[in-house]
Amino acid sequence: MRTASGRDFEVIIVGAGVIGAAMASLLVARKLCAPGRVAIVADRFAAAVSADADWDLRVFALSRASERLLKVCGVWDAMPAQRVMAYERMCVWDAGGEPHGKGSLDFDCAEIGEPNLGFIVEGHTLQCQCLQAARSAGAVLIEAGLAAIVAGDAEISVRLSDGRELRGQLLIAADGPESKTRALLGIETAGHTYHQDALVAHVRTAKPHGNTAWQRFLGSGPLALLPLPDGRSSLVWSAALAEAAHLRTLDPGAFAAALTAASGRVLGDCELSSPPLSFPLKLQYALEYARPRAVLLGDAAHVVHPLAGQGLNLGLLDCAALADVLGQAGGGAYFGEHQLLRRYERWRRSENLLAATALDGLERLFSNRDPLSAGLRAAGLSAVGKMPFLKRRLAQRALGLIGDVPAFLKADRA
Q1: Of 214, 242, 241, which Cα lies nearest the Cα of 61?
Q2: Mean pLDDT (whole number) for 83-100
């Protein structure tokens, strides 16, 4: 496996989720690495499920920029149609308001000249397709844990849990919010918990979802109903810890009744089609994104509140930005230079902190139960709804059509 230069790979990626696998494909697709010169290291790799299996409870809302990146990676066109749902409208309203009325903000893809506002995709299938694309691109998949990292002037080496040692030019940490790679690099994080759990489930509703993403801001957190292609909706209900604990004790009928009430009956009576699961919510960000010969991507670098569904989109933009910066390097021999990686860090850390701060502020604003705050929220949503230019800009920003986006994502094809 080792070349004449003595290195096993140009790039070693730790983490086999969507971000790690997409980054591997992108490095080859953008001709930054040759096939066989990128490795993905992970404790385990996702196994494909049967085509008729139910949707995984983990779903992602993908932007236009993410769609374009996944096209470049060879992933998007391979996604099964039944695992992707384009949504055309979004309705956001405060608990004190009414959908499509006072205290509501509505978006429609027709208003911005786009075919949709994004896609809801099934998480497990997306991860498997990203891994398959990485394999097809020539990435080498290595199933092992990470034991140690040693960065030198000319290369970086990693020791695996099975005793093997790999050497390369650049190490990419894409191993999630509890990143062992980040810890071994000695990079610290900051942030706080939200004292909320997110409950996720799939539900059937009496009224059709209308290809619309619905989100209601409640006193203890936002509740979202995301459209699925079979007519169901995917529930993401962020609730205060005590409320979430109570909801987990309810039988399916009682939970569905609580959901029907909490959603303001926007889709009529709700019925669970899967048992709900929950996970804790937090804001977390790495104090550094880059070290000599090492860099962080995705949740290893930043974790945000799911209220706007931007977590994965931010991670995929990390991949695009890193590929863009590495493309300026003039060859793999320069990939690990700290000065080069600092360009990526300055670019993405500022963008991600801006997004995290905005989402954190929204969560705090809409979780404030004060009557004056409630009135201001309703007035604010109604006011934005009456400003077409601002609405258009917000929708374009969410889609990744504007902002500091790498040039190769600003067109349908790279």
Answers
A1: 214
A2: 91
- State the Cα–Cα distance between residues 70 and 64, nearest whole angstrom: 10
Which pair of tokens denotes residue 386? 């009456």
Assigned token pair, 277: 């699961």
Cα separation, 303 vs 222, in Å, equals 17
In contact, 33 and 10? CB cutoff 8 Å: yes
Using the 8-state DSSP alphabet, how is residue 45 labeled?
-
Distance, in Å, from the CA atom of 169 to the CA atom of 9, rounded to the nearest integer, reads 7
What are 280-325's pLDDT values in tens digits? 999 999 999 999 999 999 999 999 988 777 899 999 999 999 999 9
How far is residue 210's CA from residue 214's CA, in Å, rounded to a whole number?
A: 10
Say yes or no to pLDDT of 330 above 90. no
User: Do the Cβ atoms of 25 and 35 come closer than 8 Å?
Assistant: no
Measure the N-to-C terminal CA separation of the chain; round to a whole number of Å. 31
Angle at 360 between CA 233 and CA 57, to 5 degrees: 25
Q: How far is CA 230 from CA 202, 253, 340, 408, in A?
A: 11, 22, 46, 33
Residue 380: CA atoms inside 13 Å, Cβ hemisphere, count? 11
What is the total residue count of the chain?
414
DSSP 178-245: T-HHHHHHT--EEEEEEEEEEEEEEEEESS--TTEEEEEEETTEEEEEEE-TTS-EEEEEEEEHHHHH
Per-residue pLDDT of 16-56, as tens digits, reads 999 999 999 999 999 999 999 999 999 999 988 887 889 99
E strand or H helix that includes residue 120 = strand 118-122
Grade residue 242 by pLDDT with cuts at 50, 70 and 90.
very high
At 282, is the secondary structure helix, strand, or coil?
strand
Sheet strands side by side (includes 140-143): 140-143, 38-42, 11-14, 170-173, 294-296, 290-291
Who contacts 324 (Cβ-Cβ below 8 Å, separation ≥6)? 406, 407, 408
If you average pLDDT over every residue of the chain, what do you get? 90
